[in-house]
Amino acid sequence: MRAHEILNNPFLNKGTAFTMKERQELGLIGLLPPTVQTIEEQAEQTYEQYLTKPSDLEKRHFLMEIFNTNRTLFYYLFNKHIVEFNPVVYDPTIADTIENYSHLFVDPQYAAYLDINHPENITETLKNAAGDRDIRLIVVTDAEGILGIGDWGTQGVDISVGKLMIYTAAAGIDPASVLPVVIDAGTNRKELLEDHLYLGNHQERIYGDQYYSFVDQFVETAESIFPKLYLHWEDFGRSNAATILNNYKTKIPTFNDDIQGTGIVVLGGIFGSLDITGEKLTDQVYLCYGGGSAGAGIAGRVHAEMVSEGLSEEEAYKHFFMIDQQGLLFDDMDDLTPAQKPFAKKRADYKDAGDMTDLLNIVKTVKPTILVGTSTNPGAFTKEVVEAMCANTERPVIFPISNPTKKMEATAEQVIEWSDGKAFVATGVPSGTINYKGVDYQIGQANNSLIYPGLGLGMLASEAKLLTDEMIGAAAHSLSGLVDPGKPGAPVLPPFEFVADVSIKVAEAVAKKAQEQGLTESKETDMAKAVRDLKWYPEY
Ligand SMILES: NC(=O)c1ccc[n+]([C@@H]2O[C@H](COP(=O)([O-])OP(=O)(O)OC[C@H]3O[C@@H](n4cnc5c(N)ncnc54)[C@H](O)[C@@H]3O)[C@@H](O)[C@H]2O)c1
Ligand SMILES: O=C(O)C[C@H](O)C(=O)O
Ligand SMILES: [Mn+2]
Question: Which numbered ligand comes closest to the C-alpha of 163?
């Protein structure tokens, strides 16, 4: 390989850390400044430069430059500053980079760009993007529902890149074994279609048979080129996400992050809250605000847990209420999604209840103890709503988890203040610590990033053939017992600084459950060892 090919390959490049011996062997003599640096020195220098960047967006650009040139250094640095970099590399700053992707574009970052108009190119695209790398993990998006900011077409590729960065930083998934993929199926965002610098297809989004046939060809091709693949779906639109998951989850090892990942992390946060109060899950009343992919996914997971704790399916559904744009969902509505239907109520049971489209009224009527926001409707959890939650129970669970920051149903600070410190809060973006009346409230981050890296590590280490509901349940349970419930202001989820430990715990739980279910194909039978052996570390 020619010297500059090595220096320009982020998987091989070590920059100033190439030793003199390596420089001689690889033909790099004279191509680098004479001082050989350690990775620690490189990290010190890059971090110093990082600190001079005035905004989070510029900080992210700078870090992406490191990512584009030297992946080992990037992850070394990321691991050292994981709490500080998390909101810069990932949510919420990633939302800004997606909105401005075409105008900010400098590097395709080894992603695979699939074009719905050219199914004949799927094989070549995946092979070109992988090169000679052995791909074990794909994150794919079609970007119809990026976070809470909607349809961004090809620009959504950044969410695939970003999710994979978290996989490696949090769980040590080898960055050479991953592939970010975007399916450009068009976009319904007018401003992109009208922007001549937009880098995606200038056409309206395609749905239906042509779309599903393309997805099918993609899955089939990816499975055949990469036989040990684990396939992660991210930010598909509400009308496709669950359908795609249901099509493939009984056939291949696959995962929908918004539906399943969010379900695990929110159930983990509820466990954390109940650990503190000593209450039972089966005594709770759950109100979902925003019954889309995430909302219905979470409700489905909490419902499954109530059933596994002894309630019948039907009994358990009585504990759930779901609000979407129409208001409280009733079974006579003709526009319910399949995932919403089991949570819809009989209208006759509520005929004297007044207006069932207003969140405050609904909270007063159905008296939930748990309120989870996945609506993308900022500010929906008002002071009155929080106060009404406090009238239902001593310590309500209130999780406004819509992303990014501008979409949150309430801030953590507001919920703490309006509930006089009584509500358990977790948010989708990092919220830091809030001091209220002398108590430091550490706010848990109910973001699927806390668990999907560990889940992936467990899937890859065990080489599980499928991801089952039981494995997902095991992942949620593995989150409890990690925080100290006796401490005032304790978070209900482990802080992100411990994500590496959390990932190992989640991975082991998932791999062991897969083994118990006879689903593992790994030659290693000790799942704890398989998990540790697969973990990659950023070292030269
Ligand atoms: N914290 C996390 O880990 C996490 C994970 C997934 C999604 N989310 C967030 O949840 C939100 C929803 O994501 P999704 O993937 O489920 O999207 P989605 O489009 O599938 O769901 C959003 C739902 O909210 C409904 N809605 C819109 N306006 C509403 C209103 N005023 N009142 C009630 N319901 C309303 C929509 O009809 C839709 O059903 C996003 O902001 C996303 O960032 C957070
Ligand atoms: O990407 C995130 O931050 C979480 C989640 O998958 C989302 O869609 O909001
Ligand atoms: Mn998502």
Answer: 2
